[in-house]
Amino acid sequence: MKLSLPRLDTSIGHVEANAAMIVELASEASVEGASVLLTPELGLCGYPPRDLLLREGFVDRCEHELETIASSVPQGMLVLVGHPESGPERGGRCYNTLSACRDGQVVARARKQLLPGYDVFDEDRYFQAGDEPAWVEHEGHRIGLLVCEDLWQADDVREQTNYEVDPVASLVELGCDVLVAISASPFVAGKHERQCQALGRLARRHRVTIVTLNRAGAEDDLVFDGAAIVANPDGTIECCRDPFGDQIHAFHELGKPYSASNAEMPPDQQRFLALVESVRGYVSKTGNQRVLIGLSGGIDSAVTAAIAAAAIGGENVIGVMMPSRHSSDHSLADSRELADRLGLAACLEVPIESIHHSVVESVRQAGGALGPLEDGSLADQNIQARARGIILMALSNAHGGLVLSTGNKSEMAAGYATLYGDMCGALAVLGDVLKMDVYGLANWMNTNAASCGFSSAPIPESSITKPPSAELRPDQVDQDSLPPYDMLDEIVRRWIEEEQSAIRLVEETGFDSEVVNRMLRMIDLAQFKRDQAAIIPKVSRRAFGRGRPWPVIARPGAAPAWRSATSAS
Questions:
Q1: Together in a domain, 159 and 282
Q2: Where are the alpha helices (DSSP H) in 243-298?
Q3: Structural domain of residue 130, as residue ranges?
Q4: Is residue 338 part of a domain?
Q5: pTM of this prediction?
Q6: Which of 229, 365, 402, 412 could form a disulfide with 426 if both were Cys (CB 3.0 to 4.6 A apart)?
Q7: Annotated catalytic, 239?
Q8: Are 187 and 120 in contact (CB under 8 A)?
Q9: How many CA atoms lie within 13 A of 108 on its CB side?
Q10: In total, how many domains does the chain have?
Q11: Catalytic one of 41, 123, 149, 490
């Protein structure tokens, strides 16, 4: 039995186009001798459809197109289609279903039994759980059908769950010798390796073959790696298509050895590929062709521009330098060098001094009775950042293209960013990448320039080595306001990604409790900024955005952990 595991990047809501793509892939796979075609979870409607599922007639459209697929695919071929299915109550929650189509009919339906509610998932809002296992006989095999979490059961993301059923065990008890799982599992750095380990354990324990297919592409804040993995009954793993592999069809023939690369990717490479996929997908699916990026000469704007150039080509990236009287000559030189290295379409220079002066004078005239506006004050610095935001958005409106913001996760956490200034834009490319990991990305890209699509190292060395600075007042460096980034990153990782308490954080790191408390207050109080940020591509276990809903008006001083952290030092 030969299986086709295609790289399928469907578009949310484009049901008819997605169905036509599935039929075309089935025909191509049949020509290559495959008798089974997998498609991703909810591949017919696109994932995640979110409240589209509540729109009257949407699920009906999906079910109509499922009938079209069933009647159009080659005779004898088994095509596994992920789609929403109407529930028993009209207008109620639907099922997340895998339908097995063959010879013009739907011969089996597997309704997802385990509905995750952790991190970015809110499946209980839209779906009701299935309550029976499903399988299909095909070419002498009994194939058990699973939908994403029914297989993973949170084992790949280290989440604590209390599921009461085990769909895998149920199918094994029913005599299935092959388990097939379709997924739309969002990318997290290191997740693929954990999935391979989990699959190996499961296959070895139950002495079955497990075949998995993840969707490809990006949707809003989520990225999908498109990986196709087979676990043999002895627990050995074959990656028919590595994460972010670009081959359209990956094939696997049961019982035959498969020559596959199972080499682990370093985390920097994983993040690079995921962020490239995110930018490429967001730009194309919003109907745009080019992007604009403010270039400061620093590491964050340099890495953002390099990722954009790798995703859509440097000829579709416009760099914009916006110097003030505080901008150094080397910052402008580094920006120009970056633009040359990346082959950017343009590197514009638009000074902000006149805008800054005009706003400052207007505020001083209008608000004199309220007190002075001091040079170098926070308000004065934010005017500079917002002047740059105005310029970028004006260029975007006048000439087309999406603005990419350049802030990293460490800055977003601490609120070291200006609303309607450097935070403006459509996509915050590095918003889930800690500052030290930004340096890691830069060094990895420079070391692996050719595999990133560059003829030489893309990031100027001085952008990597110079002290980071917003250059909003004389002699300013980031560490005037923040602790060293390696320390801040560890605080953010533990507080945000691991959800540790303040007392545990202080005890395990040995960091000064006053510094920790100050940063935790800053992190929680900056939520109002993050709620207004551009979309942040998720690449870590816990990203800012829908996977971390946090109350804006929470008062961190009310939490006992603050007092505990201070007393623990």
A1: no
A2: 267-285
A3: 2-255
A4: yes
A5: 0.93
A6: 402
A7: no
A8: no
A9: 18
A10: 2
A11: 41
